[in-house]
Amino acid sequence: MLDRMVYLILAAFVALTAATLVLTPTLTYAQQQGSLSDSYSGDELVDTGHQFFGSVAQGLASLVERAVSQFGLPNAYILGEEAGGAIFAGARYGEGTMYTRNQGEHPVFWQGPTVGLDFGGDGSKVMMLVYNLSTISDVYGRYPGVDGSAYVVGGLGMTVVKYGNVVMVPIRSGVGARLGINVGYLKFTQEPTWNPF
Can you tell me the distance from the alpha carbon of 78 to that of 87, in angstroms, rounded to the nearest whole number? Predict the structure, then answer.
């Protein structure tokens, strides 16, 4: 049973990595073709992230640079907080504000189940870079992904999730005690809910 779970987690991780490699040239080209006036520059994102994350923001510039080199310039970003916990299966809940140049600021909520070799609990500040957002309603949906955690005090980490044409790059500063890898999804909604599904 445990061997099968490890196999499923590794297969999901390989599939997500392959999808990221395939999507990278397409997304970068699409971002270059879009209007840069509605995008956020890497410098703007790093400055905002340093203000938001504070003293734990070391390494933020390299994560933002990596995301921008793979996916181009985002046309929205989310600043928020989330908490989660797991003993094999778990859940994650968060809330924040999505910032856009042309469509204003909007509250967003996210939640989702996880399953995997994952133990512990954490609380995080989160900055999510949002790509290919045409309308605000495009953000609402389920974004599947693989997440890994390995910290006892804190640190920054980055993942990539996708729903339809919208790609999100969550950058988290975790505080807590958590170790493992899990598969799950984040469901973005307009209202908060305790139901992670």
Answer: 28
